[in-house]
Fold these 3 entries.
Entry 1:
Amino acid sequence: MMRTGLLILVLMFAAAASAIAMKPVRIAPDADRVDYESLIPRGFGTWSMLPADVTSVINPQQQEVLDRIYSQIISRAYRDSQTGSVVMLAIAYGEEQSKQSQVHFPEVCYPAQGFQIAKSAKDELTIQEDVIPVTRLVATLDARHEPITYWIRLGKRVVRGNLEQKIATVQEGLAGRVSDGLLFRVSSIENDTAKAYRLHDRFAADLLQAIAPDSRRLLIGGEVRPQ
Amino acid sequence: MILARRTGQPDWRNRLLIWLPVITGLIVLYLPSLMDLFRGIWSTDQQAHGPIVLVIACWLIYRKWPEMWRVSEGRSTAAAVGWPIFIFGLILYIIGRSQEILIFEIGSVIWLLAGILLLLRGSAALKAQWFPLFFMLFMIPLPGAVVDAVTMPMKMAVSYVAENILFWADYPIARTGVILQIGQYKLLVADACAGLHTLFTLEALGLLYLNIIRHDSLVRNVTLAILIVPISFTANVIRVIVLTLITYHFGDEAGQGFLHGFAGMVLFLSALLLIIAVDSLLQLSIGIINTSSRTS
């Protein structure tokens, strides 16, 4: 009986120690910090950036959450000179993807502001040789009908859905790493959902082709290929 | 008297020697987890029932301790089952603690305790303590994915029902998603009103009530446990309606001020009354069925 008790104690100590030892550590050095603001061009192809929208309402509580989760947020609107359509681009980057500070899904952010998510579907976006698993949403608020296309990069891969995000975080974590995360979201106010998605696809393709392949990896993941 | 003390003393010391390593181990494993919980998720509105469940579970184990000791006295221990369960609990703990998977980290305590009971006192002891261990399930924080997936539909349903009842009662009410508009006021139905947290607290309290009352009828126990789900929904609808009406009649400040806390009390009172009413109804109907089957 005594021996059993002591063995239990030793095993519990060992478990406590290994849990501490297996905690992943952040390795991303601040030296190669990327400035996403300058990475994304202000004009490319037929697209040009619109002056910042200064009328947006500031919600202090929301701002606090955003500052805690993301280290960089880009929010811009671009106009297409061909069709005159406007798309909104949001990129949110978080250095450390852990439970408390992981990239939030638009499925959560939009309803938090009173929107309803009318539709949600999985899709794939093919840009040159890259296939990006994206999610398509339609958010509505009163008469506003806003189709959304987004993807989330976690470390070197794009994850779709909460569970995939968690699994990827844990896989990286078990390997002792804390990866970074990035949300790439394109949306437009447009009643024709299919047309909006085609616009989003073209915008994303034009943008990715306008930036260097190395920088492209920062947006859609994958290995950096030797030149 | 003297005799009792003589035999009692070494026995008491023996017991302590057996349990001291277990208690030390549990403190080393779970004190950091508890501190994280209190600093994090347990300090939020949604999971505030966690500490209550923990305290009640400890009390339940303590209450059952003498009985457990008595029934397991002289029985053989179950090392063959105990070790795998214990080791599994430890693995869950290691993965959960290092990778921040709370459902593993906190869930592991149930496996560990079950394994330890089997190893030190045998299966009779585990059988005696099954309810406290089961009760600890309510202490495990729900994974964020589940909360996110369930909260929104529940909020929608609560706002939908509240709107329809108030509309039927001739109030000037309209709804967009989870935003209720009554008169000149716009109310956003918050996450807390979804009732996930209330559901958990009520289900835990309901089971506790059933365990302490010790109903003899299994049907009544199970039915009541299931009925707590719609009861908690109803209680949440009542809370939203009460808050909406307070805002409408007494203004925004009243709705957000001390009367907000009052609405929380209304929630628990109405839930409690509903549980007692349903329980009495069940008792009555089971009684009727029993007498009619006896006469026929």
Entry 2:
Amino acid sequence: MERREAAKAVPATTDAVRRLAFESFTQGRLERAYRWAAMLLRDRSDAQDAVHDAMVQAWIHWDELRDPARIDAWFDRILLNVCRMRMRGSPVRSIGFTDTIGPIGPDPIANLGESDIVNRALATLDADHRIAVVLRYGPGLSPREIALRTGQREGTIKSRLHYALRQLRAFIDAAERTPGAPR
Amino acid sequence: MNDEGLERDLRAALVTDEPGRVPDELRERVTAIPGEVPISPVARRRFPRMLMSVEPLVGIAAAAIILALVIGLRPSGSTPGSSASILPSAPSTASAASSSAPGVVPWVNRSATPSEPAPTPPPGAFARPCGPSDLHVSVGRVGQAMGNLNLPVTLVNRSTTACSLSGYPSLSGVSSTGASVPLRVAHGSYFGDPGSAGNLKPGGVGGLNIGGGAECAAARNGVNRTYPVLRIGLPAGGTVDIPAAFDTSCVVDVSALGAIPLTNPTEPPVSPLQAEISAPATVEQGAVLAYVVALHNTGATAYPLEPCPDFEQALGTGSSAGWVATITYGLLNCDAVHEVPAGGTVSYEMRLAVPIDQPTGDAKFTWLLLGDSGPLANAPMQVVRRP
């Protein structure tokens, strides 16, 4: 056995392993992350920025993850936090995935087509309620799975879903009762 | 609308609005992150220090194991501390390349002995702690990233003798009436430590990061707790004031005080060496992959191989459902060749034992010379089923 007397640090070792691990991770998670961000933010450009920001966070804090079984929930929580911040920091938009964004005035959704009523209703939800609804009915996560990814209690998620659905239903019912309202 | 109908419409709307494939632009941005985003010294140090505190070879094996576990990686032949060989004693069929081509430094099966991280100076090596009268203090512009605010503070030793900076400071807000309000601070900044514990020569520069947030409930409710002056309590006693209109309504954190070296220690010098892998296109499960790494010296002077450097080789395959990387560390064969001449190339024969249960498919195959900043080489590789 040959040993070497040396006193240099070994950052390259951990860097290389870390880089390999991160690249592998992003390959497996990028598509889902983009899909979730797009569903939450309703804007492809915002979704790209959110996923990029979340990946930067994951890279910076990579070494802090100690439980490999929680890597998906760990990253999902990062992504959802980034999306939540973006939802709170920008005007609510409900534009679907068109390439053009109309003027955002007092009623940014007034000119949308009839089939967008659900999107319009979703746009009325605040960030936390929208996250619960999108994760429940988009990727189909259970309340327990949503709770794990948002750091909330399962009961809180169920409550948010209940009130969110009630709000959505009220919005849609009101839209249907309004003469001339698009449906 | 009833619940069932609403839930059906929600699913339909969300599925309809799925954005399709990931744009190439996003893939490129994410791929570039490791090269563009520096890791804070705190994050960079935390990992190796913890591992290197145990027996060296266990440490490096554990480093690979822990990261391996994160994504299903697995170090090869991981019997920590037990062997100097990085190949199985009775390797399975050598499958991929011939051995010892003319002009190629032959393979030697030697394990690497990981070196120790840069030692922290013993307490006796520290100069006296910097006091308020030693320091000229200034603040930079508030930076923001991911909802985190950072106020960088620069400390310059204006005395005629060396003094030291270390530890975490306390923090108080000073109101316009002069009242000092102690702030509850968390240790550790999102933006990392600007330096490391050490001495400041006369004129030497140290630093501190003070962090805050803009996304807590209080801030969202319009609470703003901004003091015209922040008072920094030095660990060894005394305070220094900084004029800083910094909102402290969310959690406030501080980095450790530290000396900032003239050259950034997190940016190792660029190696003049370039590496290139010559390898077969495929390797079978359970085989020993034989390949050649050429080290080319782009510098104007010979690159000494003293001390003889370690290398790392990694082969990763799998999917998001289960990724497996086989990682080994070895010692370059420096028996006959002690330097890479300026403008010259030295080629080395390499061996990597591929486990029998290595997943098949396209692989990420990497070879890296340790120390300084590489060099690193990648090559296409496919792991195929053993017939």
Entry 3:
Amino acid sequence: MEKHQMNTGDKNMVHLTIDGKEIETPEGSTVLRAAQQEGIHIPTLCDHPHLTPYGGCRLCLVEVKGARTLQPSCTIPATEGMDVITDNESIKKARKFVLSMIFSERNHFCPFCQVSGGDCELQNSAYEQDMTHWMIQPNWNNYLVDSSHPYFTHEANRCILCRRCIRTCEELVGNFTLGVEERGALTMVIADQGIPLGESSCISCGMCVQNCPTGAMMDNRSAYHGLKSETDTIKTICTGCSLGCGLEILVHDNQIVAINGDYEAAINEGIICKLGRWQQLEKLETSINLTTPLLRKNGQLVETTWEEALEFAAEAIKTTKDDLAAIASTELTTESLYSFKHLFSNHLNSNIVTSTETDTYSAASNVLLKNGILNFEGNIKSVDTADCVIIIGEDLINQHEVIGFMIKRNLPKGTTFVNIDSNTETYGSLANCTMQIAEGSEKDAVRGIVASLTKLGLINNSCEGVKDIDTLVQKAAKGTGVASETFLDAAYAIAKAENPVILYGPVITRDDSADALTAINCLAGLINGKMISVKGKANSLSAIQLDLDQPLTNPTSIKTAVFVLADDSDSDGLLNNLMSADTKIIFSSVENALTKAADVVFPVCNWAQEEGHFINMSGSIQWRNKLMEHTKNIKTTNEALLALAKVLGFTMDSDWESALLARPSSVELTK
Amino acid sequence: MAKPKISSDWLGGCSGCHMSFLDLDERLLDVFALTDIRATPITDLKHPDEDGVDVGLLEGCINNSAHIEVAKMMRERCKILVAFGDCAVFGGVPAMRNFFDLDEVMRCGYINTISTDSEGMVPTDPELAVPQRVQSLNEVVKVDVFLPGCPPSADAIYYTLTELAQGRIPLITGDYLNWH
């Protein structure tokens, strides 16, 4: 798959004329791309700027001087001296005929379709050709409607067989679920070997729905809720995990209509996963929002005012400040995390001030940072251009899925995938080299690879400087339980690569000794590879930079516990030890088990209502936009924290940027 | 020159296109000034003049033998026949029933509805029109002007009628062209 973007860098240029305009375009680009580059419009249906040209619909037919027939501009390469006409009577006639054939192939009835009225590329194309009616009747066969999938429906009556969904599934997501069966008029888009979508290998990313030009792939939730032309589009980022994908969210009347991936976002270039497109929204809509502060009186949580709730919380905090634990979610904005740290650490000097990901994602990195090894992590974007990906102890099939897509879609292009894990089942047979290692033996595995590279003469020296390489390989094989031949296989695979990337998970970063991370750093140096820690939740890195990665030690003597969670519900039960505190103060957007057990509940905004900064796993400082207004009696988390500080009599600032930069970072922070 | 005569009728439709025609509001007066409105479902005359009219508008799809009769009569008596709205142009919403067996459709409408008691039956009176699969108007008779839309907007109707009244064939394009 070649990305069809205009790269004028090192390519030879060709010159052609389109509609009398002289155009210079890189060799290898198509007539369509050359025309688009100059703002010349050619109608298309099966073409998508992020997919390989297919030449299926024939709507983009153009006249090429000297050619016997009209040519599809999306697949014909631009050549030197070419003379192209994009619109005349014979082209118009051909396009109308093409559309007539498409309309007659299935059953397209606009009045009851959810994309009619602006969002349907087929309807728009017909309007563009001034089609008032069909010259040929519809097919009238009743085609399959597959509604077995929880998030979207496949309405085959509206399918034009452009295969954009199929190309999306393989080229952008690397999942290869969609395909076609049969041929000619019997051709049908199917999942796997023709089974219902809901039972198929579909991973519900919904990219096919986003890229479908007609109403054939229908988003169950957003269908009929509003067209793009009738809604506002807000660009923002996903805060479902630490990747921070760009999103385009359709909003109307203070409600979210639909969520799409933002093709202009550098991090994800349009692709998003089921969490970003559907599940976060589903959670938002099925949760019970808190609308007013709550205070426990005579054992019962009752509604109260902000003033009373703040007074009560301030009193509890003041009287027990020597036995106070304050825990913040790593899904909060950087602004909120900074206010939290400022209040509880700088002003109150509380015993425990940390985040819900305590001690998890930074222990090993800290060891390297203390040794003066700074910014040792690379950018996640390098995964997409890597010719070898080594994953150690991280599940990118179920977590941080979009990184998994970037890896999977590159495998058919020859990217080597080495998987080192104590549980390698997740990736099935995707990896070229699988090393099922004994739990906790990651450092042995990495050292073994380094030794194997040395043994095979693929690198000049190892970091350890031990003479007897064979012993080292044997030792690694023994420690990991993996055959020494497998180490040699992996070493071969890795040594061939020019741009290798090593991705690793919490099993590496939470290791206090940092042995495994040191070994990875050594390997990365030897093979000239990038190393990337995938981290955890949306703002893990901010929390780390603000020193909110302290261990949760000795929580038993705590009298007052403050949980600033917003959308987080502590599903891991990390806060259980603190639930015995005398006073529990919670900042939450929704009702949950924690708020029910609390003494004071401050209702705060959810992710759709609060804007602010987030730092992704690669150090990109990004802005999350507000999508909707909050109800009257709740505050943003940051406002609530500032209100509490005011009642406590502290002055607060908002200089989170200097605070972030004060601590050395494992990855360069960039805006 | 005498004012062009205009007639209309509705077949398998919801009368929504005629309601959209009434949405011309005060512009109806312009239409009356330019044209001679003859038989329509919303005026007293029920059949177009036997010696013919200039323009005929037909709303709705063809879904039984009576519709075919009316369509053919309109075709005979109208110089210019306009397929008025999505049902006449494409088959429209009624065409959804083509995806089911006709007997099943009749059972669904006359027997299986919640409000039908045990006496429910599909009407069999020989005087009734015979139902058939839904067709667009141009499958049955020649159509001169297609005005799609569900319904066509009052603006599109006004444009179409005023163009026809002045002896021009309207080009339905831009904002006037809507299939929904």
